[in-house]
Every structure is written in C-alpha cells, then in structure tokens.
Amino acid sequence: MSARIGLKHIQAIAPYVGGRPIGEVAREYGLDESKIVKLASNENPLGIPQSAKEAMLKAASDLGRYPDSNGFELKQVLSTRLGVPVDWITLGNGSNDILELAARAVAQFGDEVIFSRHAFAVYPLATQAVGAKAIEVAPTATYGHDLAAMLQAVKASGDKAKLVFVANPNNPTGSYLSAKEIEDFLMTVPAHVVIVLDEAYNEYLAPEQRYDAIAWIKRFPNMILSRSFSKAYGLAGLRIGYGVAQPPLTDLLNRIRQPFNVNSLAQAAAIAAFQDSAFLQQGFELNRAGLTQLTQAFDSLGLTYLPSAGNFVLVKVGDDDQAGARINLELLKHGIIVRPVGNYGLPQWLRISIGLPEENAAFIGALKAILAQQ
C-alpha cells in the first residue's frame, strides 16, 4: 500500500476553477475561436492599454535579468498617487497573492478566518491552506455583506479570530458597502484581528459611491487594503496587484512573499497603466453603458438580477438548482462563455461579465433564444 501523502487540510482543498478558456470551449464544441464571446472572468473588454504595451516593449530588452524584487519604480508611482510611504506597499502576483499572503502572515492551524458566504472563492482556499477554520457568515437578504453579523462572529470567536475578508464591491454578487458601514466596522473590530478590504473592482464605483480607503489605512494598523491591475487596468494576463498597510503588517507580508513575485513586464505595464487616466475613464464609461444594456435586457426577459457596483452582473436564470448549469451549457453551445456560480452556493444564478456592446448583444441574443426553448 502506498503511503498517504500530504496534510489533511491541504488534501481537502478544492482547487480554484477559473472561467473557461476560449480555446478549450472551441475544441470541445467544435466552434470557431474568433466567434466565441467570453464574459466569464470579469476581464476588461478593452484589453491592455496601448501605454502599457509600449512600456512592455521597452522592458522586454532586459528580460535576461531578474526583475526588481522590491519594485522600486512602481512603488514610487503608487506612493505618490496614494499618499503613503513606499514601505506601506506590498506588490503581489495579482491581488490574489496579497490575499493569500495575508492569510499566511496572520493565521495558522486553530485560528479562525471570517468572511461572507457568497464572497470571493479565494478566501476559503487561503484559509484552508494555512489550516485555519473558515467562518462563513450568512449574507444580507440582498446577498451583500452583513457586517453586523460578521462582527458578532468575530466577538464569538474571541482570541481565535485572526482575519476578516471584506470585499467591496463583492464578487460574485456585485454588492456594495457604504463608507460609513465600512468605517463603523473598522472602528469596532478588535485590534488583534486583521481586516483585509479587497477592492479589486473599486475603479468601477460610481463617483457618489467612492470613499478614501487610504485614510483608513492611516488610522487602523490592523487593516490591509488589496487592489488589482487585472480589471480596470486591463492587465489580467500579467498577474499584478498590490496591498497597502502600515509597516508592521507590510513587513510580515514581505517576509513571506516569493522573491521576484512580480515580473519585469508586469511592473512596467502597471506603471504605465496606473497613470493612463484616459484609458481608465474609457473603461468606466463602457462599463456603465454595458451594465445598462444587460440589465435592460434582463428586465425585458423578466429575470431577477442583483444591482452591481462592479463590471459584472449576477442574474437568476431559473428556480431549480440545475438552472445555472443547464443554461450555462446551452450558452457554451452558442459560443458564449459566462460563469456558473454553483460553487458559491448560487446554483440558480450566472455571473455575466460586462463586455463590448456587440459582445453583450451576442450574449443577450443567445440567452433569449435559449429561454424561449425552455
């Protein structure tokens, strides 16, 4: 008999499954790749900004050398814009890296990590990877974070609670927390508990929804702010994000992150994209128009959907627990890739990333045809 290899809490992890690649769907269903529409991974439909492409071309001439492990130039740009010292910034291989570093830095076997039930799938994965206990808190009636219930979970955990993940906007529900709700929560959580505010989609917030999260970092030494270049900045394929926290926490994150965790092309592209305000505004406006395009179609079809503050919409496509998988399969046959969310405990729903107008229209047309045959 062969010996059982691996720790039990690692063996029990269900690996993260991303949106299906276009090439894979084309092969499986015998489709033309050029005609497939992917609205599954909340990617920027504009792609990578031209400014970032040009920056990468310049950086490509020096790829025989290791990247700057400390990301000096990118940290300088971030520091200037955000108004924090350089040593408050940690660079990550995507913001996903920051989330996992936070779990590794502050939680271990026997500790408890708290998050909302319908929140980003990496939170339970990061928790389980360190052997901590995941405490999933039931959401509000509108599928948003119930911060009052999360606070009660922290208090009930006592000294066992070490980390809380809060996403705003939340993936996959698109729900939004106001500045007052977040600030009140930060003021009430015990100082020994680290709060990660995950803002992967904050650039899509409407002007009236925006707030100064950096000001909270300066007030709360137990807070980590996580942000991404994958969404609004169009750099998903380069895997780059960053965290902001006061030095005691940043020091922990940098002690355990991999050396050279952000490659040279990603750093160069991020510097350019972060300063490309025209591209950011173009993406914001495109997203707002696309959100209207999708929600108006859902209204006309009589489908329930959740108000979204991100670049995606969660829509209910049936009343039985096979509805999401069933409609998703039919959409794949039509060459439309969206995201079923049964793994989030939402088997009746699909998450639709907002694409270009013609991509949204292709999805709407396919969905109408499929529902008409149900």
Describe the structure.
The protein is α/β, with parallel strands linked by helices and 374 residues long. It folds into 2 domains: 17-47 and 278-372, Aspartate Aminotransferase, domain 1 (Alpha-Beta Complex); 58-274, Aspartate Aminotransferase, domain 2. The chain has helices at 8-11, 22-29, 50-59, 72-82, 95-106, 122-129, 147-157, 179-188, 213-219, 247-256, 264-274, 277-301, 323-333, 357-372, and strands at residues 37-38, 89-92, 112-116, 133-137, 161-167, 194-198, 223-228, 241-244, 312-316, 336-337, 339-340, 349-353. The protein has a 7-stranded mixed β-sheet with strand order 2-8-7-6-5-3-4, with helices on both faces. Strands 9-12-11 form a 3-stranded antiparallel β-sheet. A hairpin with an 8-residue loop joins strand 11 and strand 12. Helix 3 runs antiparallel to helix 11 (264-274) and helix 5 (95-106) packs across helix 10. The longest helix is centred in the last third of the chain and has 25 residues, at 277-301. The model has no long low-confidence stretch (mean pLDDT 95).
| Topology-level CATH name of the largest domain | Aspartate Aminotransferase, domain 2
Apparent shape: globular
SSE pattern, N- to C-terminal: HHEHHEHEHEHEHEHEEHHHEHEEEH
The figure for the number of domains is 2
**Oligomer description:** single chain
Question: Helix proportion of residues, in percent?
Answer: 40-55%
Main sheet record: 7 strands, mixed
The assigned CATH architecture of the largest domain is 3-Layer(aba) Sandwich
Poorly predicted tracts of residues:
none
The count of strands amounts to 12
Tally of alpha and pi helices: 14
Task: Strand order, main sheet: write it out.
Answer: 2-8-7-6-5-3-4
Structural class, from helix and strand content? alpha/beta
CATH superfamily of the largest domain: Type I PLP-dependent aspartate aminotransferase-like (Major domain)
Q: Please write the CATH class name of the largest domain.
A: Alpha Beta
Q: What distance lies between the first and last C-alpha atoms, to the nearest angstrom? A: 51 Å
Percent range for β-strand residues? 5-15%
Radius of gyration equals 21 Å
**Average pLDDT value?**
95
